[in-house]
Design goal:
heterodimer; A: alpha/beta; TIM Barrel; 25 helices; about 25% strand; B: about 475 residues; 8-stranded mixed sheet; 16 strands
């Protein structure tokens, strides 16, 4: 045979091209060169270069030549006719060969035991989640089973790291060889890795997204300071030292979500780092913002499976957002390509890499180009981590890392036949090397002479033998073995005499597939006589069917909406000129309540108030019989965030709600339906000095940044009493455990802040010429003290969760000692007891209308609280602290009418009063010319239980409108139904389905009290 | 007594309360309180909450005149008269002569609104005090799966600080229920003006309460489904197993009742089911999901029980089935968020109207712990804003509740022959700006509309000299 038989070699027998030089030899030395020439192949060198009828020569694990004039004599020739060779794939996001870390449940829980210190032994930093000192190359050891899985999916080289912690140390590039660990390593310290997840760290801090972000920011600061201040009191800090050492590497951040990607990029921007970001699969939902990060991405292909929505009651709990994501997720890679974002692909996230190629083809079907797909698996990743000299394309001198496929690799039916890693062959699906399908000349060399048949092979186990009759045969072709049996004659159909049909005896053949359509072996006839046989492919191959993936029409139902899910819209609502005619206008100003009055909204502002107004460009809203008020302002809310409570330490003033806004929270829309236009999003109440708050406007559909109330003064949450002394914990170890201790936490914090401020001043005044000096080269910049310094300088303001009179009083006294005011006491349920003191101090009060009794410190809470404080002369607001109640804040305010407050004053408690305490009364909170056009049109007096918000307008943009709402409801029902039918069709078509997964309402709560949040509430005190 | 003295006593009382540290024997402390109270009582001051006396039995005829009477059954009578004697409503109407004898008490409700006392249809009032942080004050949830013999009334604390404020919102009766797992025990209707639970009992042991397991696949903490912490990888199967525990209990009880002698002795748990099988009690099934409610319907079919669903979040989806099976619903918290983000944003607000339209007998309930059930009338008001008529909304917290709880012959409406459980409000009792209760009567007894809340308010208004 001139053809060289490939493939029979078993893996273990593969030639070792890289035996280590220094290693002692047990037995007889066996050094070989391992030269191969792959001929007649379609060689895809990279996404742009394909050579037909090429010859690829490899030797010593590397590519020795492409299309040489002569095939080297020593090379074993592999005929690759009709085959394709591609550079093998590179996966930048794996933990291949890294020991698994044991996981523990994370998240913040009131009452759970705390771990305040890092219990890792060694001279590391204070936080266990900063594992900058981990080097993957030092703990890597190949894993034959995982290597095989990845190779079978087409991968040859991976970047692997220990995916544990917020700073995760360095990654190592390895090949998926089964040879030694020494041979596998391509590049040590190839990358540095990060995430927002503290992973297996058992330490309490951080317990939230905000905390993770803060820890990372502080670590950048600390590392720089550590570098500048050798010999400081810090001593040796290996975590900071390593952190500095890994900064020059490609920086890879595991974000796993569209908003987290954007958050990570912001952290990077501040630190002067451009991360490469591991995407989460939902980036297509905000691809413009994702593109704006300018980051390169590592994109997974773990598309959601269809769910079993057969049972309508199970289907009911699957949200439209999840249904849409199921349909649109395969378009994620294509949307990266269309938006010109550099990206790589990864198999990570898949339950098993064996679905990688199928999902990749799906992504191609959803618009990803084959060229981009190949680049994303070869050249792009190689370039990103600086290994283009070794892998990523097939060029002379690079590693002999390639795959051989039966067809162009992205075709539906393409099969990876072999995966060569560093010049060593690993079989993937070798049986498919020679397609068995076709017509063979079958010759049986029997004693009676040669019997000839045509053997028609349709697949490896389907064949007919055609002699005088066409007879079905039993065929098996596997692992190069062939077995075939058939009867010489048709089974009798029952004789004339009515005899029963008899199963015809069969000829039984066994043999070997010698490759390229040549089978031979031995057989036994019905009488037990042996014979030999051959079967030779005549070349009449069955015509290939058209590649089906490209032919399928997609029939996509969903569109990307903002937000992505129910009540989102494909186009965001726009600012309009609006004239509300003839309404009863509750101005929340000294003008009082104006009957039959027009209000003109223009350019996002209130342009005019009066009678008989007109504007030809205006959209007219008839306000006859209706009431117009300023938008409701909620001084205390926890909606629209990813996390709310960095509850680990007693002081977490570095944490910032604004770092983790979640503009997709349905509660934004729900609250618009209750007339809310501005919300003050507070950190939770698990610690005395909580995190920095964020004032937002309820711009439904906007991005996280666009929710922010521009130009508003920054605030911070403080808390006192039972929560901060961890009353519900039976094993508290965190100071303070009493209200006495709480006072001292405050004293200590501001004393430290005061000293810190002095130190900064001293360090700034360092030069003789009076030039400015960055004090933080000497003084360790402390993000938590920064916030306190701002408070002392009246650049940041406190809203303080408080219940009983003692703590309220001493907090004011501490503030006075340090020269500032407590801007707002929130909750303040005993405010009526110290209203006079608060007035003297100058605090505002933001309270509940009628909550009480849910814990010991609220036993003296009374419904008259707001009205008494109001009568004493405090500026009083009613807040929600609850996603449900926020929809009815007008009702809550009106409850004070029962206690002798006027309707007008009651409404002010949710409009101008909170605006004043938030220092935004110049912009919102009342209906006054020049203020923001944030207004609500009500069906009844806004202080009535019967009042419904009909239209809610923010910045002159209609974000909620009852009619539009009805249209959206109908559209949601229609789209849900269509997607459910499509999912059912997928199930009936035999696709994998998982059990229906209810979409829980994850509602962040401060953990202070109970809430009515429905039966799918998965509330998280995080 | 002048105001200054009142403050001094109040302060001393407050002082004692605050010094109640853990090593100070509670009984001793209580004695001190009681001494103080008796001292205060002796000088005729109704200051501290503990000293708000339950009203004595009605001695003289009472005529409420001039008010708009909301009967509770949908009827509204303008400028009507309600005649009350011996704790009962004698007559309601326009042409009722008011005798001019000295003993007759006339309550002028001119321009005001007269309502039946509101009924809190399912509550832990009197069983749950400082829920969040003091375990010892909580008696609402018993251990174990099968507690049919547990009786909520036994732990009902008439001194609970949450009772008196409710009366100032018009709530005069409550159905106090036990909670727990599966078969939870019996509830009792109480009137909210009593010295002890036996006085308070209005209809003892009116119903047996069971709670059904969820059919919803729960997720483990931090995302993932089906992990070891999720515990219900096949929720339908797990739920059915739990439901079978309940059914086995009822089957065993039914079989037990056929025994003439009990070879295993008298079984308190099984005995507890007798009133249910005798149709002297209703079965209150706590259920929010459709699948749970379908199981409740199955209870009707299998045992012939008179079934009431408590919770009913998703009942709007099967209102016609509930009607067809004659199942009533106590709907918790109109003021709630929708189940799904896809749902109509006002679904919980309009669910009552769906039930009304289908003809389902339903009551509205408030079990919102943080505000302690004060907002029952406003939950009904919201239902009125979203599809119920105001009188229908009123019925949902009066007559309908009475029917569901089995006390409609005694209360729930202002009709002759019923107990005089009546509230007079300055305005619309369902609206925040109208709910100002000026008078209230329980069984014809004019009750004191005071509470610790009012007392604390008075104290500090006095301090600041404000009204």
């Amino acid at each position: 045979m001139r053809k060289i038989v490939v493939c029979l070699s078993v893996l273990l027998a593969a030639i070792s091209a890289r035996a280590q030089v220094t290693f002692p030899v047990n037995g007889v030395t066996d050094k070989r060169g391992g030269a191969y020439a792959f001929t007649n192949v379609t060689l895809v060198q990279d996404a742009n270069t394909t050579i037909k009828n090429a010859t690829l020569v490899i030797e010593n694990g590397k590519i020795a030549a492409i299309n040489p004039k002569q095939v080297p004599a020593n090379a074993i020739v592999v005929d690759c006719k009709d085959k394709y060779i591609y550079p093998s794939f590179i996966d930048l996001y794996t933990s291949y060969g890294i020991p698994e870390q044991e996981r523990r449940a994370g998240g913040f829980q009131f009452g759970a035991p705390q771990q305040l210190d890092n219990d890792t032994k060694g001279a590391y930093g204070w936080n266990k989640a900063i594992k900058s000192y981990i080097d993957a190359f030092a703990i890597f050891s190949k894993d034959a089973a995982k290597a095989e899985q990845l190779r079978n999916a087409g991968f040859g080289t991976v970047l692997t790291h220990q995916a544990d912690g917020i700073v995760r140390g360095t990654g190592v590039v390895v090949t998926l060889t089964d040879e030694s660990d020494n041979a596998a390593i391509v590049k040590e310290r190839a990358s540095a890795h990060y995430s927002f997840s503290k992973g297996t760290s058992t330490q309490s801090y951080p317990s939230s997204m905000m905390g993770s972000i803060s820890l990372l920011r502080q670590t950048y600061i600390d590392a720089a300071w550590y570098k500048n201040n050798p010999g400081s009191k810090e001593g040796t800090n290996l975590a900071l030292q390593s952190f500095n050492n890994i900064q020059d590497l490609p920086q890879i951040f595991e974000a796993n979500d569209k908003w987290d990607a954007i958050r990570a990029d912001r952290v990077g921007d501040e630190a002067g780092v451009q991360y490469i970001i591991r995407a989460g699969g939902n980036e297509y939902q905000r691809i413009k913002e994702v593109a704006a990060t300018k980051a390169k991405f590592i994109v997974g292909l773990n598309f959601p499976d269809a769910q079993d929505v057969e049972d309508p009651q199970n289907a009911r709990f699957v949200s439209l957002g999840d249904l849409k994501a199921w349909e649109l997720a395969p378009s994620n890679p294509a949307s990266f390509e269309k938006n010109n974002i550099d990206f790589c692909l990864t198999a990570s996230g898949l339950q098993n890499p064996n679905t990688f190629l199928a999902n990749l083809r799906k992504a191609i079907q959803y618009g990803l180009s084959e060229k981009a797909a190949l680049n994303a698996l070869t050249a792009n990743p190689a370039k990103l981590i600086g290994i283009s000299d070794k892998v990523g394309s097939l060029e002379v001198g690079k590693l002999a890392n390639f795959i051989i496929t039966s067809e162009p690799v992205f075709n539906d039916k393409a099969v990876i036949l072999q995966n060569w890693v560093s010049g060593v062959k690993y079989g993937v699906k070798e049986d498919a090397w020679t397609p068995s399908a076709g017509v063979y000349n079958l010759v049986l060399n029997r004693m009676t002479g040669a019997s000839k048949y045509a053997l028609e092979v349709k697949a490896n186990n389907v064949a007919n033998v055609i002699g005088t009759d066409t007879l079905p045969a039993k065929l098996s072709v596997a692992f190069k073995s062939v077995s075939l049996s058939f009867s010489e004659k048709k089974a009798p159909r029952g004789g004339r005499g009515g005899a029963a049909p008899v199963a015809a005896a069969s000829l039984r053949l066994s043999g070997v597939d010698n490759g390229n359509g040549y089978w031979q072996g031995t057989g036994v006839d019905t009488l037990g006589n042996p014979f030999t046989w051959t079967a030779i492919l005549t070349g009449n191959e069955v015509a290939k069917t058209a590649d089906s993936s490209k032919a399928k029409s997609l029939n996509i139902i969903s569109q990307v909406t903002y937000p992505f899910g129910a009540y989102g819209t494909t186009d965001l609502p726009k600012q309009e000129t609006i004239l509300i005619k003839n309404a009863t206008v509750w101005t929340s100003e000294s003008a009082g309540i104006l009957e039959s009055t027009d209000v003109l909204l223009k350019n996002g502002k209130i342009a005019a108030i009066g009678k008989g107004l007109s504007d030809p460009s205006a959209k007219i809203i008839d306000g006859t019989g209706k009431h117009l008020s300023a938008g409701i302002i909620d001084e205390h809310s926890h909606i629209a965030t990813s996390s709310i409570n960095e509850g680990s330490h007693s002081m977490t003033s570095e944490a910032r709600i604004g770092d983790n806004l979640n503009p997709d929270d349905i509660n934004i829309y729900r609250q618009l339906s209750g007339g809310v236009t501005t919300s003050h999003i507070l950190h939770g109440s698990a610690n005395t000095i909580g995190g920095q708050t964020q004032l937002i406007k309820l711009r439904w559909g906007a991005t996280d940044d666009a929710l922010k109330f521009a130009g508003a003064d920054p605030f911070i949450k403080f808390a006192l009493g039972e929560n901060v002394k961890r009353t519900t914990s039976t094993n508290n170890i965190r100071f303070p455990d009493t209200r006495m201790g709480v006072e001292q936490v405050l004293m200590d914090a501001f004393q430290r802040a005061s000293d810190y401020q002095d130190a900064i001043k001293a360090a700034s005044a360092g030069t003789k010429k009076g030039g400015s000096v960055n004090p933080f080269t000497k003084v360790r910049r402390d993000l938590s003290l920064d916030a306190l310094v701002e408070i002392m300088n009246s650049q940041r303001f406190i809203t303080c969760h408080s219940y009983v009179q003692s703590e309220i009083t001493y907090t004011m006294r501490v503030a006075e000692k340090f020269g500032f005011k407590v801007n707002t006491f929130t909750h303040i349920l005993e405010g009526y007891k110290v209203a006079d003191k608060m007035k003297v101090h100058g605090s505002n009060a933001s309270t509940f209308s009628d909550w009480w009794g849910y814990k010991a410190e609220v036993q003296d809470a009374i419904s008259q609280n707001a009205s008494i404080m109001h009568k004493v002369g405090l500026n009083v607001a009613i807040n929600s602290d609850d996603a449900e109640m926020a929809r009815r804040l007008n009702q809550e305010a009106a409850k004070s009418i029962k206690h002798n407050m006027s309707k007008e004053d009651a409404l002010k408690m949710v409009t101008i009063n909170p605006a004043k305490m938030l220092h935004v009364d110049g912009k919102v909170g009342s209906i006054k010319v020049g203020k923001d056009a944030d207004v609500v049109l009500w069906s009844h007096e806004p202080t009535s239980i019967y009042a419904k918000a009909l239209t809610t307008i923010v910045d002159g943009t209609i974000y909620f409108d009852r009619e539009k709402d009805n249209e959206l409801r109908a559209a949601i029902a229609k789209e849900r139904n269509a997607l459910i039918l499509k999912m059912l069709a997928e199930k009936r078509g035999g696709a994998n389905v998982t059990a229906a997964r209810p979409t829980f309402n994850v509602i962040n709560e401060c953990g202070d009290h109970e809430h009515n949040h429905g039966i799918l509430d998965a509330h998280e005190e995080n | 007594m002048n105001v200054a003295t009142m403050s001094i006593i109040m302060v001393s009382w407050m002082h004692m309360k605050k010094t109640n540290c853990s090593d100070y024997p509670k009984q001793h402390f209580m004695k001190k309180i009681l001494l103080t109270i008796s001292f205060l009582a002796a000088i005729g001051w109704a200051g501290a909450q503990d000293n708000i006396y339950p009203a004595p039995a009605q001695a003289n005829p009472i005529y409420i005149i001039g008010g708009t009477v909301h009967v509770g059954n949908g009827t509204v009578l303008e400028k009507a008269i309600v005649q009350i004697e011996n704790g009962k409503i004698v007559r309601v109407g326009k042409d009722i002569p008011v005798p001019k004898t000295a003993n007759v008490q006339v309550v002028n409700a001119d321009g005001q609104h007269v309502y039946p006392g509101l009924i809190l249809a399912s509550t832990d009032l009197g069983l749950r005090e400082i829920s969040g942080s003091v375990r010892g004050t909580n008696d609402y949830r018993e251990l174990g799966d099968l507690n049919p013999n547990v009786r909520a009334i036994a732990a009902y604390n008439t001194e609970s600080e949450f009772i008196n404020p409710l009366r100032t919102y018009g709530i005069l009766l409550a159905n106090v229920i036990p909670q727990g797992s599966l078969v939870m025990g019996t509830s009792s209707v109480v009137q909210l003006d009593a010295y002890n639970f036996e006085d308070a009992a209005y209809l003892a042991d009116n119903g047996m309460h069971i709670s059904l397991p969820s059919f919803i696949q729960r997720r483990g903490r931090r995302g993932g489904f089906g992990g070891p912490s999720a515990g219900n990888s096949n929720p339908a199967e797990a739920a059915q197993e739990r439901i079978n525990v309940i059914k086995k209990y009822f089957n065993d009880a039914r079989s037990y009742f056929t025994e003439t002698v009990h070879p295993n002795g008298k079984n308190l748990k099984l005995e507890a089911a007798r009133p249910l099988f005798d149709k002297k009690q209703k079965l209150f099934v706590h259920a929010n999901e459709v699948k749970q409610m379908l199981v409740a319907i199955d209870f009707v079919k299998q045992y012939g029980f008179d079934v009431v669903i408590v919770g009913g979040t998703e009942s709007w989806q099967i209102a016609d089935l509930l009607k067809a099976n004659n199942i009533a619903v106590i709907l918790n918290n109109t003021h709630n968020l929708p189940t799904m983000e896809d749902d109509d944003v006002d679904q919980p607000y309009k669910t009552p109207a769906v039930l009304q339209k289908a003809g389902v007998l339903f009551a509205l309930n408030d079990n919102h712990v943080n505000s302690r059930y004060k907002n029952l009338p406003f939950n009904a008001g919201t239902a009125a804003a979203y599809g119920l008529s105001r009188e229908e909304a009123l019925s949902a917290i009066t007559l309908n509740a009475a029917k569901i709880l089995g006390v409609q012959d005694k209360t729930g409406s202002i009709e002759a022959g019923k107990d005089a459980n009546i509230v007079i409000s300055k305005g619309d009792i369902l609206d925040m700006d109208g709910n100002v209760v000026t008078d209230a009567f329980i069984q014809g007894r004019k009750i004191v509309l005071e509470s610790k809340q009012e007392q604390l308010a008075d104290k500090y208004k006095h301090k600041y000299n404000v009204k």
